[in-house]
């Protein structure tokens, strides 16, 4: 089930939107890494419930534009009914009677950005935010809740500059420079614990990329 709405304001320079969804499912398929090799193995939850809502905004006037997105989601499953040999017996017993968060669920995520066009050069700055993917929750009695916690939240900024050159007897040539993870933020995407998660994974370190695009 999906329901959305968009509204344009300020002479159509501002667009606001909201979209919500809900999906009950049976035999919900998921994938997990159950060993050192990065090979994903499919398995199924007997029941699944997926729901969320996303808010969006876009603004553009003359040489300036900006956007923002904010999303909340919940993705849960209950009862492992395939590839059961890959799971710890205690985890299997808990999931049989409880809904747990899916390993790829990020409860809150957001993105925003601005760009400005100055003559033939465009400058842009983007931001990504997430509350972190799932990890096991350790209880005081020594037991764990599978996927009951999440890794720390993170924020990443990206910078971009493009310049268009007009070449005679040919189409425009666009030169692009991108800096990914501008402030070299070190953050963990996966901790190595949780259902279907075997190894730790991290976000990208700072990277500088150049590109050329020739139109004909």
Mind explaining what this structure looks like?
The protein has one helix at 89-97; strands at 2-9, 14-32, 41-61, 64-80, 100-101, 108-118, 121-130, 134-138, 144-150, 154-165, 173-180, 188-190, 201-202, 207-214. The chain is mainly beta. Strand 6 and strand 7 form a beta hairpin. The chain is elongated, with a radius of gyration of 22 Å.
Rg (CA only) = 22 Å
Largest sheet: 10 strands, antiparallel
- Determine the number of helices (DSSP H or I, runs of at least 4 residues): 1
**Average pLDDT across residues?**
92
Q: List segments where confidence is low: pLDDT < 50 over at least 5 consecutive residues.
A: none
Shape assignment:
elongated
State the helical fraction.
under 10%
How large is the share of residues in beta strands? over 45%
By DSSP, the count of extended strands is: 14
Describe the protein's topology.
Layout: E1 2-9, E2 14-32, E3 41-61, E4 64-80, H1 89-97, E5 100-101, E6 108-118, E7 121-130, E8 134-138, E9 144-150, E10 154-165, E11 173-180, E12 188-190, E13 201-202, E14 207-214
Antiparallel strand pairs: 1-2, 2-3, 3-4, 4-5, 4-6, 6-7, 7-10, 8-9, 10-11, 11-14, 12-13
Considering the chains and any ligands shown, give keywords for the structure.
216 residues, mainly beta, 14 strands
Q: Can you describe this structure in just a few lines?
A:
The chain is mainly beta and 216 residues long. The chain has 1 helix and 14 strands. A hairpin with a 2-residue loop joins strand 6 and strand 7.
């Amino acid at each position: 089930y999906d329901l959305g709405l968009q509204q344009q304001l300020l002479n159509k320079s501002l667009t606001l939107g909201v979209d919500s969804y809900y999906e009950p499912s049976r035999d919900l398929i998921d994938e997990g890494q159950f060993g050192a090799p990065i090979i994903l193995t499919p398995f199924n939850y007997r029941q699944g419930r997926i729901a969320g809502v996303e808010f969006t905004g876009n603004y553009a006037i003359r040489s300036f534009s900006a956007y923002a997105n904010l999303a909340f989601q919940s993705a849960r499953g209950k009862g492992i009914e395939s590839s059961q040999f890959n799971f710890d017996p205690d985890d299997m017993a808990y999931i049989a009677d409880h809904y747990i968060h899916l390993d790829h669920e990020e409860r809150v995520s957001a993105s925003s950005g601005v760009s400005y066009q100055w003559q033939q050069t465009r400058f842009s700055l983007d931001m990504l935010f997430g509350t972190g993917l799932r990890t096991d929750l350790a209880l005081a009695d020594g037991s764990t809740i599978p996927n009951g916690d999440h890794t720390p939240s993170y924020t990443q900024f990206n910078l971009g500059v493009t310049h268009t050159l007009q070449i005679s007897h040919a189409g425009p040539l666009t030169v692009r420079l991108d800096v990914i993870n501008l402030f070299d933020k070190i953050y963990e995407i996966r901790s190595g614990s949780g259902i279907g998660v075997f190894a730790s994974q991290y976000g990208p370190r700072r990277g500088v990329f150049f590109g050329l695009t020739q139109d004909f």
